[in-house]
Amino acid sequence: MKKENNISRRSALKGLGASVATLVVSPSFAGWKEGKQANFAAPLENPLDKYPKPPYPKQTQPHPGLASKMDPVPDHGEQSYKGSGRLTGRKALVTGGDSGIGRAAAIAFAREGADVAINYLPAEEEDARQVVELLRGEGRKIVAIPGDITDSNFCNQLVKDTVSQLGGLDILVNNAGYQKSNLSILDISDESFDATMKTNVYAPFWITKAALPHLPPGSVIIATSSVQAYDPSENLFDYAQTKAANVAYVKSLAKQLGPKGIRVNGVSPGPVWTPLQVCGGQEPDKLVNFGGDTPMARAGQPVELASIYVQLADSQASFSTGQIYGAAGGGGHP
Ligand code: NAD
Ligand code: MG
User: Fold this and answer.
1) Residue from 161, 276, 325 to probe ligand 1 pocket by mutation (most atoms less than 8 Å from CB)
2) Helix H segments across the chain?
3) pTM over 0.70
4) Do the domain assignments include residue 172?
5) Which of 18, 86, 166, 204 is deepest in the core (most CB within 10 A)?
6) Among this protein's residues, is 309 annotated catalytic?
């Protein structure tokens, strides 16, 4: 427990600006050092000004894309996410944990005290290494397991490796996704349609089936859906269907697993600045104004969703199951 406080304090200090450095000697901070509750206010921030706004530089990358090569580089909470022990001792698997929303969830889980396994495609090794390097030395076990989840055998192996390397599993985040923009249904090849379905619908089915025998009561499953489930864009005909399937996955599985003490919830992001969008997920011309039509007038950053994943994983949310939590900058559903 003492170690937890030291870790949190060290990372908190790293992120404190010079203007608030005097807090270090304030009585409230001294109290925290002694193991009491933190008692200083987070600064009031205007969400409109927190992150880069459109127009964004025009850019494309080959699939699956790297966060490190995006301009601007997304904020996954590397410097800013501070934990407070909400998930101490928990064991999490996050698919697509190398970049984007999955990386933000993985960083937050680790900073909240969980051991974390991330899965990603071998082509994303560079992004995955950044996550491992970042979290190394922060006192948690971070395991990187590359592999393609469109292969059911790999999905089984992924769960086996996670359980053996973390010594169990109680937070499963089915977050990996494939999105390819096509202006016409006539442009969607069978192969592309199949890749979308396999990544977004089959893989969560295979991974969940493999994981279930290992999940003790109190475990949680979290799916990343999308506003596309509720208000599909004309260019995301196949992707939107899979995100609606993710909502049904949550609603059905929550009913099935509630009596076993396992909660199942989903997150429904709006436009978030991630590699998925720059490697075929959006038309490059439209990406320049990505998120510009939301009330926040910008794209979200992955870190802005991290606390939602933490909240859903936290045992304090024990009566929340079968829910979809939105984060869409003011537009979208639910
Ligand atoms: P991202 O590119 O950072 O993450 C997607 C990840 O999926 C990749 O990092 C990759 O590791 C993984 N992946 C894809 N195909 C895979 C495969 N065959 N095998 C193994 N891993 C594979 O982008 P993101 O936006 O953070 O995406 C995460 C989730 O968020 C996806 O489910 C996506 O549908 C959803 N989402 C994103 C947005 C957005 O605007 N970015 C909006 C709504 C929903
Ligand atoms: Mg990635």
Assistant:
1) 276
2) 2-15, 27-33, 100-111, 125-135, 152-166, 190-197, 203-211, 237-257, 275-276, 284-287, 303-313
3) yes
4) yes
5) 204
6) no
Over the stretch 308-320, which tens digit does the pLDDT of each residue have?
999 999 999 999 9
Mean pLDDT of the chain: 90
Taking the centre of ligand 2 as the mean of its atom positions, its distance from the CA of residue 23, in whole angstroms, is: 37
CATH code of the domain covering residue 293 = 3.40.50.720
Check if 101 has its Cβ closer than 6 Å to any atom of ligand 1: yes
Q: Which domain holds residue 89?
A: 67-327
In a domain, 203, yes or no: yes
Residue 38 lies in a domain: no
Q: What integer is the mean pLDDT of 68-80?
A: 97
Residues in the chain: 334
pLDDT reading at 293 higher than 50: yes
Catalytic option among 56, 120, 178, 239: 239
CA-CA distance, 334 to 269, in Å (whole number)? 10
State the total domains in the chain: 1
Would you state the pLDDT for residue 332? 79
Cα 179 to averaged position of ligand 1 atoms, centre (Å): 8
CA distance 248 to 166: 29
The reply to whether 302 falls in a domain is: yes
The one-letter amino acid code at 10 reads R
* Residue entry with tokens 């055998």: 153
pLDDT digits (tens, 9 = 90+) for 167-209: 999 999 999 999 999 999 999 999 999 999 999 999 999 999 9
- Taking residue 163's Cβ as centre, other Cβ atoms within 10 Å add up to 19
Asked if 329 and 269 touch (Cβ cutoff 8 Å), the reply is no
